[in-house]
């Protein structure tokens, strides 16, 4: 405050005016002069104290900002009083709080990005390593013909896996940045299931699994047909993979006043309680997941469904099977 | 980050034999940016809860902590100021001031605080609400849906820590209800606004991220439906 030029200017001005005034009054009558001098001195004191207090408040705010700047947690500086200073405190509090919240979010995002990158590299690395080995083996000119064919087949399989991974990741990132426009088509649920089942019928037959389906043809939902088929396909595929040969897959659909529900049950090994909360997370692999599992199919299903006012839930009992419910909420907004 | 915490909240009206327990030891907490729906049949205590959260009614026992401040530890004046700066309220019957025009109604919380209106912020809110053409109209020259949008604007002008809505669509037809709800959702998304909405309509509750069901003054269910 002492260094503040405007305060000095104000003090000097006031001092000059009061000295002139007091002297004039003193010359008229010395008693009045004493009274005037005393009054003005008291006024000066009041003025000084109030200014001091105001500057202290401002200094407190600037100390607070400095501590926030140096990374201290924000503290509550609001005092809920009337007046500009209190509004200022309130606003500064809001801004610092928003900023600290943003920085927490950024840190989380960064961590997530790093994790995702390491997951993706890991997923790409495994097939690449095995392809390197096989290419090396193929290099041997004395390799018998049937061995050669086997290795080439292996390499093709790995390439297919990488291709699937890359396309899925691309799709997921498109959904993430909301560049996918989901169409609103009125489709029958049965058609969705039928289309999703098409590529899965052969693997099911190979595993000798029984399929029961009870979906009314007239049950309609408003979704993007292609994307939703993909979502359902991933869920059923997951069920087939985790159900032993000779098991059962059942699909049923029903309508409630709030949503249309599709239930997909399998008689598979089930999901352990330690895995259950995470099965829809990207790159999460449960205890029972197969060697080729990447952990992206269910995550994608969830993303697709949630982007079009639908959602997916899973309940499971170890050794009994898994029940997956997809709810298509009736459009209200 | 936690923005609201309710600890052991109880509210009893009357005493002796005529005592009615509206809220019975309720506890929950809401994170910043959450969209919570509180549902329950009439008489379940949900409106009482909202009034206590908003600092309009006092609890018999228990604490309400909004943005790290226990609101019932403050004196009347401090609470009033806290309320107008940190809490936005939306009512079923709009509660707009009939002699003020739309712009004045929206900026009322600022004027009460004795501060200037930030034109950018006002324009932004008015645009989201779609009220550009109506700024100089009086409330009785507007439809119900428009009036409710004005009251949403009034709740948001001070960028409050939480917005509380008490049956915001209770007095509107289905078309206007849908508009108001989608508007609230949009504000929740774009401004990361914490939103607590009370309703008895399950369709509306399903739009939220989390549903808290209240029955006979107690929380009977608390489920997160979207993350």
Radius of gyration of chain B: 17 Å
The largest pleated sheet of chain A is described as: 5 strands, mixed
Name the quaternary structure.
heterodimer
Total number of helical segments of chain B?
A: 7
Strand order of the largest sheet of chain B: 6-7-8-3-9-10
Strand order of the largest sheet of chain A: 2-4-5-7-6
Structural class of chain A: alpha+beta
How many discrete structural domains of chain B?
1
How far is the first residue's CA from the last residue's CA of chain A?
A: 58 Å
- The CATH first-level class of the largest domain in chain A comes to Alpha Beta
Extended strand count of chain B: 10
Number of domains of chain A: 3
Helical region count of chain A?
8
Please describe the structure with a list of short key phrases separated by commas or semicolons.
heterodimer; A: alpha+beta; Helix Hairpins; 14% strand; B: 227 residues; alpha/beta; Rossmann fold; 33% helix
């Amino acid at each position: 405050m002492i260094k503040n030029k405007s305060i000095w200017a104000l003090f000097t001005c006031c001092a000059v005016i009061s000295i002139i005034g007091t002297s004039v009054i003193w010359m008229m009558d010395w008693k009045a002069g004493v009274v005037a001098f005393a009054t003005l001195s008291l006024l000066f004191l009041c003025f000084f104290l109030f200014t001091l207090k105001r500057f202290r408040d401002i200094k407190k705010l600037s100390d607070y900002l400095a501590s926030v700047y140096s990374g201290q947690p924000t503290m509550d500086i609001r005092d809920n009083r009337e007046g500009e200073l209190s509004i200022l405190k309130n606003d500064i509090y809001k801004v610092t709080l928003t900023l600290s919240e943003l920085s927490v979010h950024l840190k989380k995002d960064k961590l997530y990005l790093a994790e995702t990158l390491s997951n993706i590299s890991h997923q790409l690395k495994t097939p690449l390593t095995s392809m390197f080995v096989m290419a090396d083996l193929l290099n041997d000119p004395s390799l018998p013909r049937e061995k050669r064919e086997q290795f080439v087949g292996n390499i093709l399989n790995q390439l297919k896996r990488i291709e699937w991974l890359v396309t899925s990741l691309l799709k997921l990132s498109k959904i993430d940045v909301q560049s996918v426009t989901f169409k609103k088509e009125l489709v029958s649920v049965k058609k969705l299931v039928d289309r999703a089942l098409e590529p899965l019928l052969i693997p099911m037959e190979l595993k000798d699994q029984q399929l029961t389906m009870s979906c009314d043809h007239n049950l309609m939902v408003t979704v993007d047909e292609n994307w939703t088929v993909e979502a359902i396909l991933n869920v059923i595929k997951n069920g087939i993979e985790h159900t032993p040969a000779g098991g059962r897959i059942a699909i049923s659909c029903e309508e409630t006043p709030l949503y249309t529900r599709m239930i997909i049950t399998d008689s598979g090994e089930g999901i352990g309680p330690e895995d259950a909360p995470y099965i829809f997370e990207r790159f999460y692999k449960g205890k029972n997941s197969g060697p080729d599992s990447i952990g992206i199919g269910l995550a994608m299903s969830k993303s697709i469904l949630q982007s079009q006012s639908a959602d997916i839930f899973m309940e499971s009992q170890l050794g009994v099977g898994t029940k997956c419910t997809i709810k298509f909420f009736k459009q209200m907004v | 980050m936690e923005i609201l915490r309710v600890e052991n909240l109880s509210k009893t009206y009357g005493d002796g034999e005529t005592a009615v327990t509206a809220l019975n030891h309720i506890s929950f907490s809401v994170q910043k940016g959450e969209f919570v729906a509180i549902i329950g049949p009439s008489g379940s205590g949900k409106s009482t809860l909202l009034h206590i959260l908003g600092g309009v009614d006092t609890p018999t026992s228990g604490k309400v902590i909004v943005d790290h401040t226990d609101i019932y530890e403050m004196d009347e004046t401090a609470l009033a100021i806290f309320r107008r700066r940190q809490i936005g309220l939306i009512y079923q019957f709009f509660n707009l001031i009939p002699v003020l025009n739309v712009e004045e109604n929206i900026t009322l919380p600022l004027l009460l605080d004795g501060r200037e209106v930030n034109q950018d912020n006002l324009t932004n809110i008015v645009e989201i609400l779609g009220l550009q053409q109506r700024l100089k109209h009086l409330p009785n020259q507007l439809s119900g849906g428009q009036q409710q949008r004005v009251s949403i604007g009034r709740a948001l002008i001070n960028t409050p820590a939480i917005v509380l809505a008490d049956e915001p669509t209770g007095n509107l037809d289905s078309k206007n209800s849908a508009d108001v709800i989608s508007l609230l959702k949009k504000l929740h998304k774009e401004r990361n606004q914490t939103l607590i909405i009370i309703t008895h309509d399950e369709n509306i509750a399903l739009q939220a991220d989390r549903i808290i069901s209240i029955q006979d003054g107690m929380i009977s269910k608390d489920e997160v439906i979207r993350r």
